[in-house]
Amino acid sequence: MKNNVKPFEDIDRWLSELDSIQNCSAHTLRAYKNDLYSLQKHLGKKTIRHATLLELRRWLAELAKSNPQPSTTTRRIASVRSFFKWMRLTGIRQDDPARKLSRPRVPQKTPHFLDINEASEVVEKPAQSGWFATRNKALLELLYGAGLRAAEAAGLNKENIYLESCMVRVLGKGNKERLVPFGIPAQQALTELFNLIDGGPKSSVFRNKFNKRLSTRSIWQICRDAGDKNDLPKLHPHALRHSCATHLLAGGADLRFIQDQLGHSSISTTQRYLHVDLPRLLDSYRKSDPLDNIDLNSPSAQPPKKPSSD
Fold it and tell me: Is residue 4 part of a domain?
């Protein structure tokens, strides 16, 4: 076994394998890197491959002084566990002290969502003006109408949008592809945006002022600005995603449909929406909903065929 390794060498090798072999998302890789680099810096000159259980616990104890959320501590422990498991499987270590780290109990949060009127205000009255307002409205309509994650919206190309059938082909977590319906308002907003942007099928849908792909951070800021404008402070993309799911549930959609819509790998994640306060939504739902009452059985709403690679 190689002993004269540099402090971050093992970490970088593992991250490279995750990126090239397991196709982990950029967000996941960034979180792993931040956690493991933090541990290596805590160890000083001692390489992470030689870390003991006591040192792992001391690192977590040091980080605990800043009172992180239980979910943050859980993520850090998961990062370390995954990395030490890889070291054991590849023969770098014979033992795995990270297996003995206990994770804190993370309370199950009820998803935050907007009511129908609040969601309508946000997506129809975004911040900024001119071309930016057109882009922002299309973005917000799609986040809400299709229940997309911010990273999924950022990664969309024009070829992923099927305007006629109101469908979008999304690349979600773990590079899992799914086909998701969206409503007439999103169709109209996207049509208006497409009339203003150039580029071929593989060009990005949502762009910044430099005509480059919009970043996930910028999408968060657009949501925050739209919320501030409509007296809904600290609005984030996931609130629109949660609102889409909650309104679908209020309208009678079953959990399996919502699971497919959101791209959840486990139905237990989708079941969180059973705990929201639905009664206040039922009256307003009949007036409007994320999919604008699309008849998913009509010919125009059928999924388009995936384009060939030729």
Answer: no
